[in-house]
What we know:
Distance between the termini: 99 Å
Strand order of the largest sheet: 1-2
Number of strands: 4
Shape: rod-shaped
Number of helices: 1
Helix content: 40-55%
Amino acid sequence: MVLDFNIKVRPHGYVYSDFGFYPSKYTEIEVTPPQDTIAKLEADIADLEIMSNQLAQAKQQNQQQTLESKIEFGVQELEQIAERINYLAAQLEIEMHNFKTVAVEVNKNYHQQQLNSNNPENNLKPNRWIPLNIWDIHFSSIPTIIKRGTKFIIVEKIVNLFKY
């Protein structure tokens, strides 16, 4: 069989191709009965279905492995972040206790200053006057991350600033 391939240019620059197969003197033409051809096509279709199923199964396994890898990497990243948050929370708790210690001392001095300025010359009634505080607590909690099984849970840890 001979392959004939021609590229032709038409007016106005349009290019098109013309190719075809033409029997040569060396070409043997084999004639098979339609039943054999149909049987071969059916066998080819069955083979293609098997290959298609195998390909789909391999694709599904690949997707599953990809998901498992992403989950494993994500869990490792979550563990690292949780560890960092818990470390920072511990540091914050220490700083909150330091703040309280300094605030208590400063508050004593602040009260003394107010009491010293509350003398008879200011015309204030001592029974009704209460010194102001320089600090107050509205809440004292920090975030902490715990892990139960495969679940990460952000919880609130109460910091007792008055515990010695």
